[in-house]
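Lab notebook, design round three. We kept the backbone fixed and only want residue identities now. Task for the bench partner: fill in a sequence for the structure below.
Input structure tokens:
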């Protein structure tokens, strides 16, 4: 008669092969390996850890431009190229106590790779859905960047009117009382997330997002969904930029080099360094 393996032994073997589950009843998830990149500059090198788990498209764009595997358009000639984008570019805007900015092929903050792509920001995990735009005294939150009546009209009232389908002064006058009541109710309840969404930002909960603290690298832009090649590295925390720029990595080695770059003499109006600070290369580390 064929020998049977004891039932208990089978159960034990099967149990040993099962994954370990957490106390909450959900399987543990290992944090994916984050790529690293070495930024060589004329003033020294620093290393970035890139948040591919938080901003996958942004990280992919950055690495493909850096390594020359992505097609981009030369803004000077209109020629399409596929070569390392950042090699030889400079940090065109440096503000001590704020950030260093690079990635512009024109060297003046107006250039890019010939395309734009969307932000990758989770406003909820950054807490923007909990922060009221207006406080109890009727003052706008400092992160909103509203310092005058003109700012208030341009950055809140006009986008809000557009969201109500208002396109003319005649429509405002015809619906004055209704709009006044709605606007008051909105001002009492709207969060910073809601304000930024009125301004055109689109958020996602697909991934987590990191705050714009000292040492992070984030995309520079000219408004919602205008990312291309320009980036900045924070010299200090910049909470007022929360929700407006995709944070996609952080400096893990060589922050002293970044701070040294931040101390160079610059034009006080433009932030352009008097002596160029050049990006020699940006390459993924093995």
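Proposed sequence:
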């Amino acid at each position: 008669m064929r020998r049977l393996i004891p039932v208990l032994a089978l159960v034990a073997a099967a149990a040993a092969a099962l994954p370990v589950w957490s106390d909450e009843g959900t399987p543990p998830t290992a944090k994916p390996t984050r790529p690293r990149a070495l930024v060589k500059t004329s003033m020294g090198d620093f290393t970035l850890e890139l948040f591919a788990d938080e901003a996958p498209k942004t990280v992919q764009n950055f690495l493909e431009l850096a390594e020359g595997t992505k097609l981009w358009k030369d803004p000077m000639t209109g020629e399409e190229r596929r070569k390392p984008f950042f090699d030889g570019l400079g940090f065109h805007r440096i503000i001590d106590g704020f950030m260093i900015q690079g990635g512009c092929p024109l060297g003046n903050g107006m250039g890019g790779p010939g395309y734009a792509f969307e932000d990758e920001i989770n406003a909820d995990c950054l807490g923007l859905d909990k922060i009221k735009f207006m406080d109890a005294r009727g003052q706008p939150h400092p992160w909103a960047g509203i310092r005058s009546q003109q700012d208030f009209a341009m950055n809140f009232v006009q986008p809000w009117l557009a969201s109500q389908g208002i396109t003319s002064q005649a429509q405002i006058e015809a619906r004055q009382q209704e709009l006044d009541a709605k606007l008051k109710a909105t001002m009492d309840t709207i969060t910073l997330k809601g304000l930024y969404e009125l301004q055109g930002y689109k958020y996602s909960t697909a991934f987590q997002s990191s705050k714009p603290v000292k040492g992070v690298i984030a995309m520079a832009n000219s408004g919602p969904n205008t990312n291309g090649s320009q980036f900045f590295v924070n010299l200090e925390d910049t909470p007022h930029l929360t929700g407006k720029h995709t944070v996609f990595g952080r400096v893990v080695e060589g922050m002293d080099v970044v701070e040294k770059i931040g101390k160079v003499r610059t034009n006080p109006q433009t932030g352009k360094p008097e002596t160029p600070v050049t990006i020699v290369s940006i390459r993924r580390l093995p």
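Keep this in mind before ordering anything: The chain has a mean pLDDT of 91.
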